[in-house]
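Example record

One chain of 455 residues, shown exactly as stored in the release files.
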Amino acid sequence: MMSCKEGAMSAAEGEGPLLPSWYAGRSVLITGGTGFLGKVLIERLLWTCPAVGELHVLLRDKRGQPPRARLEQLKQSQAFDNVRLHCPGQLDKLRVVSGDVAQPRLGLDDAAILQLQEVSVVFHSAATVKFWESLETALHQNVTSVVALMDLCDQLPKLEALVHVSTAYSNAERRHIEERVYEAPAQLAGLRAMLDALPPSLLDDLTARYIAPKPNTYVFSKAVAEATIAQRPRKHYATAIVRPSIVVSSHRHPFPGWIENLAGPSGVVVGSGKGLVHAFNLDLDARADLIPVDITIDTMLAVAWEIATDKSPEVRVYNSCSQQNPITWRAFRDRVLRSARTHPFDQLMYYPFTFGVKNRYVYKALELVLQTIPLHIADYLARICGIKLQLSLVTVSSRLQAMNRVLAFFATRDWDEHVTNFVKGTRKYLLKEKDDNIPRARKMLERSVVYLCLL
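Predicted structure tokens for this chain:
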């Protein structure tokens, strides 16, 4: 692996990899920098492009914590361990920009806009990713924020590239999705008028029918955002839309299997590995559109370079998914279970096994018998015995059902190695479980096998 110092020399001399040389001296603005994608984006820029200019991170007040304090907290992320160890000075390139994507003008004052005048590249990954956020909130955070961001971009004289992060499912109702922007499911102006006219209670009742055939407000708002970007008159910078599929733990960087949230497949890994989830509503033979986070970020870095170099007047679209080495949900499930049995989690609830069924009624029956009833009984017995649980098992059951409902729509190099790292990374980085506990966890796993056989 090239060190920061070696990379800096290559970039300065105009030698070595192309992207580090191109990013040398260029300042970057990042929204969503504290998120899963954002942290890896910052890490890849600091580590692989050592001569990169300042990285401006848009941050808002959150839970009483001001932006500057949040930036210092961000610098302590485990994602930057290699940077801290080998080239800690790189983290000094991070600059806080106090703002909020949910506010007019992104909440930026004149001083903040002046701070950004040297920015060459903008990566916009901030969004609400709740699948069934209210329509008003989803549009406000995922669409109106894009308009405000492009207004800002028009004021940045040195801007060369804007990269907007969308989703591969923005047109999920289509069988074949090309790398182009499709017609808007609704115009932003009309949506704003509807939101102003309808009371919230009525709007909530009508939302599912209004956004159909889009499966949820997240996908709907992302599709509207894409069309809004495409309809925007072109300025002095190039624009691209990157559509990653289901983003999972890292393949290699910052560490194999690095993960930090329970969204999507990582929730599946935890639920299955802990012996909590035993039924999924999915087509086992369908392709699982999974892509490691570091591959997604490397794609974004290359996209910014390409559109800035080509200076295309049209919005470029890039579908980012595992086309060359796909995996089915059956293979993913089998690898997760195999890895979870080899590297078992602490405090195992039951022996890890799951059934995947496409028929919704069969799935509901299995969920009731294998998950819902056992968890409710276990919760009841724990209360009788005076055992204090960190989280009610009834609540766990409800959350597992909600997770399955969300994933069902999307589920109707060497993946063996990656899934093993996914499980190990979930254990280490997400659940904070120590590798020293694996022998003890294996003993618990062996006992659970005996209990299963006795049943």
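Notes: Residues 7-14 have pLDDT under 50 and may be disordered.
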